[in-house]
Amino acid sequence: MATGTALTGKTGANIFLEYLGTAKIATPKLVLSRFSPISWTWGTGANQINTLFQDQRSTDDTGETLDLTSGLTDAIGNALTMTALKFIYIKNTHASLILEIMGNGALDLLILSGTTDALEIPPGGEFYWSAPTAAGIVTTVNKNLFIAATTSGTITYDIIVGGLD
Known about the structure:
The protein is mainly beta.
């Protein structure tokens, strides 16, 4: 059960790039700027969460399965019993190994089109996904997040998950 009492903040993608080219008359410049934050507050409706998990973890090529409904503790040390997923952020902090998430079986989170589909995060890469609807993605059956290195070796990653308790 959620034991926090308040939350405010934003998640999202922020892209700002300046691209300069060459031409005979002038130097063309293209500026790409996209910021798509989702504002979150405390609660159980759209754009609301009431439980938060964050950690820096290590695993190897055999991987680990994180059950978002039991066995983990939330960001302030209480038992995590997430019933719906609203956002997930994972950063591969390894310099050379690839981090693979999901793709382990029938109880994997329903973020990708199938439970055997995997997503690879390259060294230094990040993955962010969100579902700010009131329902989010229900985790009562599809509750597992499988994480592994794609080759032999130990890999460290950062993870932040927000959802409903």
